[in-house]
Amino acid sequence: MGTAEIIDKLKQNNLRVTPQRVAIFEAIYALNNHPTAENIISQLQKNHPYISTGTVYKVLDTLVASKLLIKVKTEKGILRYDPVLSTHHHLYCLETDRIEDYEDDEFDEIINAYFESNKIKNFQIKEIKLQITGNFKTN
Amino acid sequence: MGTAEIIDKLKQNNLRVTPQRVAIFEAIYALNNHPTAENIISQLQKNHPYISTGTVYKVLDTLVASKLLIKVKTEKGILRYDPVLSTHHHLYCLETDRIEDYEDDEFDEIINAYFESNKIKNFQIKEIKLQITGNFKTN
DNA sequence: ATAATTGCAAAAGCTTTGCATGGCC
DNA sequence: GGCCATGCAAAGCTTTTGCAATTAT
C-alpha cells in the first residue's frame, strides 16, 4: 500500500487528507502485525516525531468509524488495529502477543452453509470470526 | 451453583475459602451474563458492601489463573468474566453490550474434523472459539 | 504458627476530552 | 472562508500495586 493509495482511500471515504492520517496509515502497514496504539506511536517517532498521542487516537477512531481499520479484541484488554478488511480470522499465540491473520475461503463456506441450515434461535448473524489459539511452530 | 458447590470448587483448586471469594463467585452467577468487574462490584454492594475494589480484581485474577473463570474479550477493551468453562462460543450483539454463550457440539465436531485434515502451516491449534456478531431478535 | 488474603489508597496504564491553533478543501 | 483536524495537557476509567492488618488452614 503506497502513499498514493492511502490518499485515495481517504478521499474515497470523504476524509480530509492530512499528513498525520497518511503517516498513521503508513505506520500500520509498516508494522504489519496488528499493532497497538502504543506500537503505532513508537513507529511514528522514527519519521514523524511530532504527531501527538491524542491525534493518533483520534485518527484511529476516525479510521475505524470509516471502516478503513478494524479493532482486534485481545484478552489483555488492549486495543489493536488491523488494516486487513476482508473477512478473516485470527491466530493468537498462547505464549506471546503475536497475532496473525488467517484467511480460508473454503472454511468460510463450510461455516456459512452450516449456519444457513442451522439458524441460531433469536439471533441474526452478521459476521463470524474465529479466534484460533495455540502456538506458532518455530522450525 | 450453590454456596456449598462454590466452596468445593475452591477447595478442589487449593484455594483458600474466604467470604470474599465466595461472594464474588455468587455475584458472577447471579449476574449470569459475562459481567465486567464493574458489574460485579455493583452486585456485591447489595450484600457485601465492604469488599474492596482491589480485592475484586485480585480474586478475579486468582480465579482466572485457576481456570474457574474465563476472560472474555470485548471490542471496547473492557474485560468481562464468564463462569462457563466448557468450550463454547459467543454471540455479540452489534447494538448493545449483550453477550450470550453459544454451545454447539455438532459444529465443534465439524470444525475439529476440518482442521484435522487442513492443518494450519506453522501453527499448533489449542482451541477454537467463534465470535458471532449480529443482532438478537426481539420477538 | 505461618502463609495467604484483604483493605486501602496511591499509582499506573491506556484512552478520551476540551479548547485554542493551524491546515485542508 | 469555513470547517475540520491537530496539539497539548489535563482528566477519566479501569486495573494494578504495595504494604500493613487480618484471616484461613
The span between the termini of chain A is 30 Å
Query: Residue share in helices of chain A?
Result: 40-55%
User: What oligomeric state best describes the polypeptide chains here?
Assistant: homodimer
Runs of chain A in which pLDDT lies below 50 for 5 or more consecutive residues are none
**If helices are DSSP runs of H or I spanning 4 or more residues, what is the number of helices of chain A?**
5
- The count of DSSP E runs of length 2 or more, i.e. the number of strands of chain A, is 5
Largest interface: A-B, 34 and 34 residues
Sheet with the most strands of chain A? 3 strands, mixed
How big is the Rg of chain A?
17 Å
Task: Decide which structural class fits the backbone of chain A.
Answer: alpha+beta
Order of helices and strands of chain A: HHHHEEEEHE
Mean pLDDT of chain A: 92
Give the DSSP E fraction of chain A (strand runs of 2 or more residues): 15-25%
Major sheet strand order of chain A: 4-3-5
Q: Report the principal-axis shape of chain A.
A: globular
Q: Can you give me a brief rundown of this structure?
A:
By secondary structure, chain A is an alpha+beta fold.
Written description of the protein model:
Two copies of one chain form a homodimer. Chain A has 139 residues and is α+β, with helices and mostly antiparallel strands. Chain A is 43% helix and 21% strand. The first copy, chain A, is built from five helices and five strands. In chain A, the strands form two sheets. Chain A has a three-stranded mixed β-sheet, with no helix packed on it. A two-stranded antiparallel sheet of chain A has the order 1-2. In chain A, strand 3 and strand 4 form a beta hairpin. The first copy, chain A, is globular. The model of chain A has no long low-confidence stretch (mean pLDDT 92). Chain A binds chain B through residues 71, 73-75, 77-79, 91, 94, 100, 102, 104, 106-107, 110, 114, 118, 120, 122-137, and chain B through 71, 73-75, 77-79, 91, 94, 100, 102, 104, 106-107, 110, 114, 118, 120, 122-137. Chain A binds a DNA duplex (25 and 25 nucleotides) through residues 16-21, 36-38, 50-55, 57-59, 61-62, 77-79.
